[in-house]
Design brief:
Number of helices: 11
Helix content: 40-55%
CATH architecture: 3-Layer(aba) Sandwich
Largest sheet: 7 strands, parallel
Bound molecules: nicotinamide-adenine-dinucleotide, thymidine-5'-diphospho-beta-D-xylose
Shape: globular
Radius of gyration: 19 Å
Distance between the termini: 49 Å
Number of domains: 1
Order of helices and strands: EHEEHEHHEHEEHEEEHEEHEHHH
Structural class: alpha/beta
Length: 333
């Protein structure tokens, strides 16, 4: 059965991968609502069938536009966000506007129209884990965000829960770990280092590089979100992860080796203030309740395919590279 799905932030990294995934795996009709900030890219939606995918350029804070698009949809999947921690440390304001007010605007619209809503969030709402703490995050871990980015994501999650409880909005939430794959902006760790190597520049590791992230391929994130939309229980939160814990130094050395460079050909740069130590997801609930499994858990293979994608798609990333590195130069990273 074909649904009308509104995907906010569908021109960004994970949103565009979700749109490609929906087109390939369902009969759904998709409308993308995206402001095309520096992080949105029309090229990420190239090649999709025009009879199934409509792209609307607009702001999720625009209540009139959001109301009209929600009225025409059966399901809203909300990816749009300011998503980069380093930017949030420099200027938090857009994070408050988009992540809090934008989410609020969508919630009010789905409340008015009785529309099914899925909220995309991050494991960063839980703060971090100490290196010597063997625990992983679960749906019961208390919220304890560290950065303006993660604080605004935590705030929007809490709005969703309040709109479910107080107004009966039909919403589900998911909190996913670090994604990698094609079409990720070059400001983020893995694409920054791959494109540095492709440009003949040295990769940049924050601090000692011992911080741990729990990597998942963007397509596994998409399959989990689709499963939650189709079978998730209203009002519930599901953690999404693929048991992919690695420290940053190990990931960088794997990139360098896969690209034929010496594993130590990188620079240590000033650490990120408040840098979260370790993220780790326990996705037992999603696996046991909804029967979801990741399909792309071979990180080295996924990394090689991601490197190949950046090699083959220089026209996609090249226009963003100089401005991104200029911003990092200002931040001293
Ligand atoms: P991204 O920065 O690549 O893309 C964000 C998209 O949202 C862009 O296309 C941008 O133009 C759009 N956007 C920003 N402000 C908007 C506004 N006001 N109105 C409409 N569109 C707007 O981000 P991403 O990495 O793809 O993250 C997508 C979502 O997934 C976010 O909600 C993020 O918190 C969440 N998430 C990301 C990760 C990760 O590893 N990247 C992990 C877990 C959760
Ligand atoms: O040049 C770099 N060098 C470096 O060592 C960059 C850009 C990052 N890092 C480190 C910082 C982090 O420990 O790599 C790790 C990953 O950094 P990011 O790609 O900026 O991701 P992170 O801060 O972990 O947040 C990501 O995952 C959770 C996404 O950007 C968020 O949107 C998501 O919520």
């Amino acid at each position: 059965m074909s649904r009308r799905v509104l995907v906010t932030g569908g021109a960004g990294f994970i949103g565009s991968n979700f749109v490609h995934y929906l087109v390939a795996h369902t009969d759904d009709m998709v409308t993308v609502l995206d402001k095309f900030t520096y992080a949105g890219n029309e090229a990420s939606l190239a090649g999709l069938p025009v009879e199934r995918v409509t792209v609307v350029r607009g702001d999720i804070c625009d209540a009139g536009l959001v109301d009209r698009l929600v009225a025409e949809s059966d399901v809203v999947v909300h990816y749009a966000a300011e998503s980069h921690n380093d930017n949030s440390l420099h200027d938090p304001h857009p994070f408050l506007d988009t992540n809090i007010i934008g989410s609020y605007t969508l919630l009010e619209a789905v409340r008015r129209h009785g529309t099914r809503y899925h909220h995309i969030s991050t494991d960063e709402v839980y703060g971090d884990l100490a290196f010597d703490n063997p625990e992983r995050f679960t749906e019961h871990t208390p919220y304890n965000p560290s950065s303006p980015y993660s604080a605004t994501k935590a705030g929007s999650d809490l709005l969703v829960r309040a709109w479910v409880r107080s107004f009966g909005v039909e919403a589900t939430l998911s909190n996913c770990s670090n994604n990698y794959g094609p079409r990720q902006h070059v400001e983020k760790f893995i694409p920054r280092q791959i494109t540095n190597v492709l440009c003949g520049d040295r990769p940049k590791l924050y601090g000692a590089g011992t911080n741990v992230r729990d990597w998942i391929h963007a397509d596994d994130h998409s399959s989990a979100v689709l499963r939650i939309i189709e079978r998730g229980r209203i009002g519930e939160t599901y953690l999404i992860g693929a048991d992919g814990e690695r420290n940053n130094r190990a990931v960088l050395e794997a990139i360098l080796t896969a690209m034929g460079e010496p594993a130590d050909a990188y620079d240590h740069v000033t650490d990120r203030p408040g840098h979260d130590l370790r993220y780790a997801i326990d996705s037992t609930k999603l696996r046991e309740e909804l029967g979801w499994r990741p399909a792309l858990q071979d990180f080295d293979r996924g990394l090689q395919r991601t490197i190949d994608w950046y090699r083959a798609n220089e026209a996609w990333w090249r226009p963003q590279k100089a401005a991104t590195e200029a911003r990092y130069l200002e931040l001293g990273r």
